Amino acid sequence: MKKLTLIWILLFGLLLAACGGSSQPALEGTAWSLARLHGQAALSGSAPTLVFKDGQASGSGSCNSFGGSYEIRGERLTFGPLAMTAMACADSGLMEQESAYMTALAAASKFRLENDQLILYDASGQALAEFVKGK
Length: 135
What we know:
By secondary structure, the protein is α+β, with helices and mostly antiparallel strands. Helix content is about 25%, strand content about 40%. Strand 4 (about 55-60) and strand 5 form a beta hairpin.
C-alpha cells in the first residue's frame, strides 16, 4: 500500500510539473536578431536584438539597450515592464525603427518558433516582428 501511495504521489508531481504555468525553457537561453518589423526588413546597419536569459528579456533597439521581464504560457508571450536607456540615435530612421520595435514588443501576445525563426504576433494574430537566431 505504501508503494502504491508513493507511486501516485510521484505521478501527481510529474503531472503538475508537466502542466506548470510557465514554459520559459522554450526561449530561455536564446538570442535573436530582428529580420522584419511589421512586414518590412530591418534597416541595414541596425542591430535590434532580443535575448532570453535567466528569466529576463533584454537586447538592443539599435540605439538603446532594454531589459525586463517576460512570461510564456503555452503559445502566449508577454513582455514587461521593459526599461530602456535614453540615448538618441544620429539617424532618425533608426530612432523610428527602435520606437516601432519597442511598441511591437509591448503589443506582443503570441509567439511561434519555426526552424531558426521566432515570430511575435499581436492579439489579433497579426505578425509584429520576425527574428532569426542570432548572436
